[in-house]
Design brief:
The protein contains 15 helices and 47 strands. The chain is an alpha+beta fold and 789 residues long. Among the domains are: 447-586, Phosphorylase Kinase, domain 1 (2-Layer Sandwich); 593-788, Transferase(Phosphotransferase), domain 1 (Orthogonal Bundle), CATH 1.10.510. The strands form 14 sheets. It has a six-stranded mixed sheet with strand order 38-42-43-41-40-39, sandwiched between helices. It has a five-stranded antiparallel sheet with strand order 31-37-34-35-33, with helices on one face. α9 (605-624) packs antiparallel against α15, α11 (680-695) runs antiparallel to α14 and α12 (712-721) crosses α14. The longest helix is centred in the middle third of the chain and has 26 residues, at 461-486. It is globular and about 110 Å long. The N and C termini lie far apart (81 Å). 40% of the residues are buried.
């Protein structure tokens, strides 16, 4: 009986405004707002809400609605979170509705009118911005197009949704969705995901006959509840009594995936029991997202390879952490996930690795649905041994004589006392993949010194003179013929790489029998080290003995010998014996990216994403994490190799430069314009590689369908400028279903290929742009720099 009375009372509370809207402070057609104008907002009659531009970063502005009279001016609605407006942008009220455009006239956002005859716009005291006809009928309003927030008097009808923003200060669409489905179920989802109730991490389950959800209401008394079509209250989302008089209210799906309701005093009153800022009321939905979210695919409450704990602050915001041996992908966004801070265990069997790893204990932790194998273990020690011996095992959980082995990326990570489990986290003991080996190459004795020694031991003056003359002639002949080719190459021995003699590598390759590939400086052969037939290696032999090839050998050993990163091909050792110069690499079973990308079938979009991010991380490491910055100078699909799991690794450092900050002038666009070389060189090359990955074609295709498509980077910019990025991935269903990321990748590539190096971001920033950790602003035309030179 009590619930029926409560339902009647809730329904009797005033509902949202009717179609007839307030006209106070109305705006006529032609009115506009410019970024950075003094009058850059339109106020409601009460002055409590404003519509206009908010500065998010330098040169980046958000068209939004916010609370005007409180200090932090909290945003409640936004239009262009995924495409921020640059300086000089304008929003104008036209006969077709609101239109937001940049200084070049490119449309960034527009409203879609539900009818014709637009007469005016108005910012209402409720926080609703409306476009209305002369008869005061709303043709469009912000309440009907919510972003992440709802306000008192606002409602969500069937099919409507709130979308969480990406992060606290990034208003582009994030990972979570609060949706009233057409079947009547009010659900919380992590996106992208099939809209299936089984995949929701919270739901009202209002789908049975007579209990089908129809409308979500936030009434003026501060309650949020779900009703049926006849007005019956089916579910109360936020149930606590909240103050209404003298307080602002809002309910929001926050970037952490939790729906919360807040109140804020309208005036600073020190005697009030409420805090001066926003205070959460009622319980969050769900109460503990760390425990609630348990997805089969994708990330959990936190990103990949991380785990979630409930915060101890007032709103109990979930916190994301990295397990031992892992670091955050983005230090500014802990929800973005973690990456291994070491080279993972090798599965190719070319070198023993079990003893190079240990297992760290974590109590009350688990990554559900990351299991790939469950084996029976009588003890925890047996489970430890099973994980250490398995190159795929990243984490093991021992429970009830079962060993649950988990592989990366780890999903649904959580730490909670209720779990009562112990997780065993595999980490490399020493973050090194190369074991120092003794120099197996005996020092060569110079035949000239032997002759000189013989002369000194001779008792015959004549013979001494004769031998001296012969020694001199041999020495001169040797120097003139081979001095600049057979000198001992200076290798930095601090790299602790193994040195091979020529005979070892000749036997390992069966007389250099099986060729894997060739380049300008050498031929690569397949080999096997040791008695194991699976210890494959790639042996690169310099093809010609020239001064340039000697420098190439020095550069490659010096450059890659100092590196240690999962996205770089590992240099296992070298041969520097007499005239022989050879390099021994880990074997990459899937060949080059060029073969993978430009073959007869189009590779998976998601695999191309992984490859792009992997190459970006490898380049960022070369430039930012080595003792001396390394500039590769030859990034192209042929020099990106793929291992057995199609993980991308950068190879062929023959043209690499150890950069000490002093400019050089060589290679790429900078070389053609006689401009200084810097780390921005491989940024340009990466941009070319990225558009090739997006479109699965080479940058230059003389046989393209149209002349405009011959040069890929020019065509990509034209498509971006015209808003027709769909054409770039035509026929690629995976990419077409992920157009927000496609657009972000295109914009990132266009920043990379700016002809002015000063405009190109660094590789660390590019990695963040690809991963969605930072906003990608509108890139200028890459060709605009040419005309200014």
């Amino acid at each position: 009986m009590a619930s029926v009375i409560l339902g009647i009372l809730l329904v009797l509370v005033p509902l949202p405004l009717s179609a007839k809207a307030q006209t106070g402070g109305s705006l006529t057609l032609g009115r506009s707002l410019m970024v950075n104008d003094r009058n850059s907002s339109w106020l409601s009659p009460s002055g409590e809400f404003a519509f206009g531009f908010r500065r998010m970063a330098r040169g980046a502005h958000l068209l939004a609605i916010w609370f005007e009279k409180i200090e932090d001016k909290t945003i409640v609605w936004s239009a262009n979170g995924g495409d921020l407006a640059p300086e000089g942008s304008k929003v104008q009220l036209t006969a077709d509705g609101l239109v937001l455009s940049d200084p070049r006239g490119r449309e960034l956002w527009s409203s879609s009118l539900n009818g014709t005859g637009l007469a005016y716009a108005a910012m209402l005291n409720t926080g609703n911005f409306i476009l209305a006809s002369a008869s005061h009928v709303n043709l469009w309003d912000s309440f009907s197009q919510p972003t992440d927030t709802i306000l008192p008097t606002q409602q969500l009808d069937s099919g409507a949704a709130l979308t969480a923003r990406y992060s606290e200060m990034n208003y582009s669409a994030g990972r979570f969705l609060f949706r009233l489905q057409p079947d009547g179920n009010l659900v919380l989802y992590a996106t992208p995901t099939p809209l299936d109730v089984s995949d929701a991490y919270w739901a009202t389950n209002t789908i049975s006959a007579g209990r089908i959800g129809f409308r979500l209401i936030f009434n003026q008394s501060g309650r949020v509840y779900l009703t049926a079509r006849n007005g019956t209250v089916l579910h109360i989302v936020t149930s606590d009594e909240v103050p209404t008089s003298g307080f602002y209210q809002r309910a929001i799906l926050e970037y952490d995936g939790v729906f919360r309701q807040y109140v804020h005093p309208k005036t600073a009153n020190s005697s009030s029991a409420w805090a001066k800022g926003w205070s959460m009321v009622s319980y969050p939905v769900p109460p503990n997202i760390c425990r609630t979210m348990n997805r089969d695919i994708g990330t959990g409450a936190c990103g990949f390879n991380s785990y979630c704990t409930l915060g101890d602050d007032k709103i109990q915001r979930p916190r994301c952490h990295c397990p031992p041996g892992y670091t955050l992908l983005d230090s500014k966004n802990e929800m973005n996930g973690c990456r291994e801070d070491f080279v993972s265990q090798s599965c190719d069997g070319s070198r023993p690795e079990k003893d190079q790893f240990a297992l760290h204990d974590m109590l009350n932790a688990d990554w559900t649905n990351s299991d790939y194998e469950v084996v029976t273990s009588k003890s925890e020690d047996q489970c430890r041994e099973a994980c250490l011996a398995d190159c795929f095992c990243a984490v093991a959980i021992f429970s009830n004589e079962q060993c649950y082995k988990k592989s990366t990326p780890l999903i649904n990570g959580k730490m909670d006392p209720s779990l009562d489990l112990k997780a065993l986290i595999k980490v490399r003991i020493k973050n090194s993949t190369l074991t120092p080996a003794g120099n197996s190459q005996k020092k060569n004795k110079n035949s000239t010194l032997v002759i000189i020694g013989s002369v000194l031991l001779s008792s015959s003056v004549f013979l001494n003179l004769l031998l001296l003359l012969i020694s001199y002639l041999i020495y001169k002949s040797f120097r003139s013929r081979d001095s600049k080719f057979s000198r001992p190459v200076q290798i930095n021995q601090t790299t602790h790489m193994r040195t091979f003699n020529y005979q070892e590598l000749q036997e390992a390759t069966n007389g250099f029998k099986e060729e894997l590939g060739r380049g300008s400086f050498g031929i690569v052969y397949k080999g096997v080290l040791g008695s194991e037939d699976t210890n494959f290696v790639a042996v690169k032999m310099l093809a010609t003995r020239t001064g340039e090839s000697e420098k190439e050998f020095e550069r490659e050993v010096s450059a890659i010998g100092q590196t240690n990163h999962k996205n770089l091909v590992q240099l296992l050792g070298f041969c520097n014996e007499g005239q022989h110069r050879l390099l021994v690499y880990e074997f990459m079973s899937n060949g080059s990216l060029a073969d993978f990308l430009f073959g007869s079938s189009r590779p998976s979009w998601y695999k191309r994403i992984e490859i792009a991010c992997g190459v970006a991380r490898g380049l960022a490491y070369l430039h930012d994490h080595c003792t001396r910055h390394i500039i590769h100078c030859d990034i192209k699909p042929q020099n990106i190799l793929l291992d057995g799991y199609l993980a991308a690794k950068i190879s062929d450092f023959g043209l690499a430069k150890l950069f000490d900050g002093k400019p050089n002038t060589n290679h790429h666009w900078e070389w053609f314009r006689n401009m200084p070389i810097s780390g921005k060189v491989h940024v340009y090359s990466f941009g070319i590689l990225l558009v090739e990955l997006i479109c699965c074609r080479k940058n230059f295709e003389p046989e393209a369908e149209t002349e405009a498509q011959i040069v890929l980077v020019d065509w990509v910019y034209d498509c971006y400028r015209d808003g027709s990025e769909l054409v770039l991935v035509e026929g690629d269903e995976e990419a077409l279903g992920d157009m927000r990321r496609v657009r972000r990748f295109v914009m990132t590539a266009l920043w990379c290929i700016q002809e002015d190096p000063a405009l190109r971001p660094n590789m660390k920033k590019i990695t963040q742009m690809l991963e969605g950790a930072v906003e990608v602003s509108v890139p200028p035309d890459p060709r605009s720099f040419i005309s200014s030179i």
